[in-house]
Amino acid sequence: MKGLPYSFEQLSVQKPDVLTDNEAAYVEKIDQFALQEFDENQRLSHFVKSDYYFNFKNTPALLIEPKVSVYNEQGEIEYTLSSKRANYFDSGEIKFQGKVKVKGADGSNINMNTPELIVGTKSDEIAGNKQVTYLGENTKIVAQGMHVQKELMQMSGKVKVFQDSGSIINTRDLFIDQSSGFDVYRTDEKIHYQSQLADIKATGMKYEDANQKIRLTGGVVGFYE
Q: Which of 3, 19, 48, 99 counts the most CB atoms within 10 A of its CB?
């Protein structure tokens, strides 16, 4: 994967307000930084830009107000990531920190935020072990972490699914499948479904967010009012 940086500006000799004291000893500063990255077939895969880029001697580069656009094989933007700061590693990984937002392009269901996550520009994987909030069409999901690869997303650890109707689903390790063009939530873990009229426990679930169709499997026990 090749990177093509451009928009280089004059280096600064003063410590900008965006840096901490430990970050003051940078060796290079670029204003309005931009970088194109290409895959093995020379297709544009990522476009990285930030207000500032700081290069250090012994630590990863720092991006201030970064925004990364991820492209699919058709050359269209699939989703974008943004945050307050990010570290850019030689391996191609970018560690976003501070109000991280992931937003899909028009027509995509991806819409989430978290305090921190790592993006692999060579693997197209996204991973985070901080609390993440995912906004579906009719639901909000809060989990302890996440992992995304291609069209399959895993919300890891304890997971709460809040439906617009007021119902709540408690589970673990929920998978979000977008391969059909809409969100399908799946898990083989224990389920606790609670609404104003029902309290149901089961093991396993398939939930279609668009039409709010839910199927609970495995030892279903419910109480109804």
A: 48
Residue 30, amino acid:
I
State the pLDDT at residue 9: 37
Closest CA to 176 of 119, 218, 222, 137: 137
Count of CB atoms situated within 10 Å of the CB of 88: 24
Residues of the chain with pLDDT under 50: 1-15
Q: Which fold has domain 1-129?
A: lipopolysaccharide transport protein A fold (2.60.450)
The SS3 call for residue 23 is: helix
Q: Are 53 and 30 in contact (CB under 8 A)?
A: yes
Q: Alpha carbon 30 to chain centroid distance? A: 26
Total-model pTM: 0.83
Q: What are phi and psi of 109, to 5 degrees?
A: -90, -5
Residue 223's pLDDT is 78
Q: Which two tokens stand for residue 80?
A: 């974008």
pLDDT value of residue 94: 94
Which residue, chain included where needed, has tokens 């668009």? 210
Q: Are 216 and 204 in contact (CB under 8 A)?
A: yes
In the chain, what's the furthest Cα-to-Cα distance? 70
